[in-house]
Known about the structure:
3 copies of one chain form a homotrimer.
Chain A: H1 2-12, E1 15-19, H2 25-35, E2 38-41, H3 45-54, E3 57-61, H4 67-83, E4 87-90, H5 98-110, E5 115-118, H6 120-126, H7 149-163, E6 166-169, E7 174-177, E8 182-185, H8 198-212, H9 217-237, H10 245-258, H11 261-267, E9 270-272
Parallel strand pairs in A: 1-2, 1-3, 3-4, 4-5, 5-6
Antiparallel strand pairs in A: 6-7, 7-8, 8-9
Amino acid sequence: xxxxxxxxxxxxxxxxxxxxxxxxxxxxxxxxxxxxxxxxxxxxxxxxxxxxxxxxxxxxxxxxxxxxxxxxxxxxxxxxxxxxxxxxxxxxxxxxxxxxxxxxxxxxxxxxxxxxxxxxxxxxxxxxxxxxxxxxxxxxxxxxxxxxxxxxxxxxxxxxxxxxxxxxxxxxxxxxxxxxxxxxxxxxxxxxxxxxxxxxxxxxxxxxxxxxxxxxxxxxxxxxxxxxxxxxxxxxxxxxxxxxxxxxxxxxxxxxxxxxxxxxxxxxxxxxx
Amino acid sequence: xxxxxxxxxxxxxxxxxxxxxxxxxxxxxxxxxxxxxxxxxxxxxxxxxxxxxxxxxxxxxxxxxxxxxxxxxxxxxxxxxxxxxxxxxxxxxxxxxxxxxxxxxxxxxxxxxxxxxxxxxxxxxxxxxxxxxxxxxxxxxxxxxxxxxxxxxxxxxxxxxxxxxxxxxxxxxxxxxxxxxxxxxxxxxxxxxxxxxxxxxxxxxxxxxxxxxxxxxxxxxxxxxxxxxxxxxxxxxxxxxxxxxxxxxxxxxxxxxxxxxxxxxxxxxxxxx
Amino acid sequence: xxxxxxxxxxxxxxxxxxxxxxxxxxxxxxxxxxxxxxxxxxxxxxxxxxxxxxxxxxxxxxxxxxxxxxxxxxxxxxxxxxxxxxxxxxxxxxxxxxxxxxxxxxxxxxxxxxxxxxxxxxxxxxxxxxxxxxxxxxxxxxxxxxxxxxxxxxxxxxxxxxxxxxxxxxxxxxxxxxxxxxxxxxxxxxxxxxxxxxxxxxxxxxxxxxxxxxxxxxxxxxxxxxxxxxxxxxxxxxxxxxxxxxxxxxxxxxxxxxxxxxxxxxxxxxxxx
Lengths: 273, 273, 273
């Protein structure tokens, strides 16, 4: 199943419009290329409608949100909705500032999103639940662990139904739900948290997967989460003495680049609840 | 000939003002340093005239063009023209949106450019010819191949004469013409297309070459194209099992850093038509 | 002493708010993670006060300053001052344009800074002394060498007293003074100048050190300078044939990631004047 999802990305080369932050944008572009998609970045209001019209999917990331780019995000989002393109929202820092929280909530209200991907604190903030965002990282009090898993799965399913889109919560354990089923994913390495932007990269990959697999969005989203986590495992296995987070960053993108559908199928660690 | 061009860059350390996109800007800065130049980035209208006055050349790249940065581009460009500095335009995504196409055409009309470097779809768009830009990549229908080479050379020569500047079209085969002669260059690797920004990097290098070689602009531009392609070949030869596009990106910049004039002279694959 | 400074960063994981340039921002984020801190980037005026309130320190870098971001810088700075957070200013390109010089001087006047870190030309410009900024690099005429060391130490001490904050001048020899004492630091490699943003990275690290070591700011600032230089030495020792500035960049961040307090203590090369 996941094998097909990846092969569809590599075969269809989806063109992805990214309105993303300037911190991790280069890695997002390279990882979209690595997984088989083709990225374009554009956040100027005058530019985004033409660009989105050329593309197949839209990735919105508010990591360095500017007041002046909000119009561009909405114009791109509305056009993507008109064209039936999948939209992924990465609500970076929702809960860390009113500005980010309010913008993310408006986007969820006014656009028809395919998926929202964030850490547990960001997602709890958007759900109006407790949510203790610590900057751009999840608060430890919110963490999804084996102990809190049942409650977290129930929460993600319920929020997915309410939001009307896939909700993907990533952390030590990842949860991806369409409101009915929930993938519980155990790929990845804790050291990925020492690299800026692995979450942003995943949102880019997820947009490519959703775009190339229109008929199975839940599987596509889950496959992208497994791919990123598995790439983190493969990249880590190639680390040598003296290597650190900069080299690890490159090795993860390299692992995405080289991963085959079969390797993804075989390496994905998940259960369906 | 190309040997001298590179040695002039390394000896003169041209200071290059870059108004470029936020996707690939870090790689552009590092590759300009790698080839022997010194980069500065500034796109604020209040800042650009002072910065350009300190520099020797100007690199304009519209990859993430904003309405608010257009004034800065024009102010920098006019000052560079007053000072006789070479200007390179990289019309990223011309043809992909009206906003980009119109801005690129205005820049070509209002500024005296030294060179325009783009993929074949972008360049055909600017020439008012057919041009099927697919996002930021060339459309396959436009590709310069051995079969279409004669026509493409004639087109590039004619457009160079009309535009009054060097036109550099990069792809599987690269063409660099001043309207009279045309370098047909066969360096490079197809895998370079899996890295974001190799074109942006080349435009930065080209600006450094043009600035350090004021008396032989066509040779300087062609030498920079050969350098980037040859670096792609050398970088590829150092790839190891498990490496992908992230590592390849680093190896290409490393190869630029280590290339000598003699290696460039020896490795450059071109004919003059 | 330096051992404790680093261990405090790793133990306290200071959250650092960065308003920085888009050229080197990704490396700044990764190096803050590497040294043990946690970075957030935000420059939107509507966003910065909430973000700074969550954080422990503020890193201001004017490398790609925009008129529209100045309000955000001041709002963040005033809030950081209210909260008693350390602020580091990196006046990239002060002296290269009136816009940058004026903004840096206003920031020094209106905010209570903990430290200003720049190259000698930038710092001389801010001191109203001669200062021959050559773009974003120091002019060779200004360089701090063994011959000019006594004068340079006296200058940095005097400017530190006048400015009321730590002044850190980095170059072949680094000087860090609180107006009374001056650390003279001889870590580092000249090849670090061939990588864009090692100065920006240091300013990020310095902010993390100052935030995690509120009781010994001079030692903390000096320790961060030694760490960056020592990482440059360690990274260089791992370079292999064919490696260049792109790989060197990664190896320096990797070296920061792996450095222990004891290694820093042992590898730091400094005298106190």
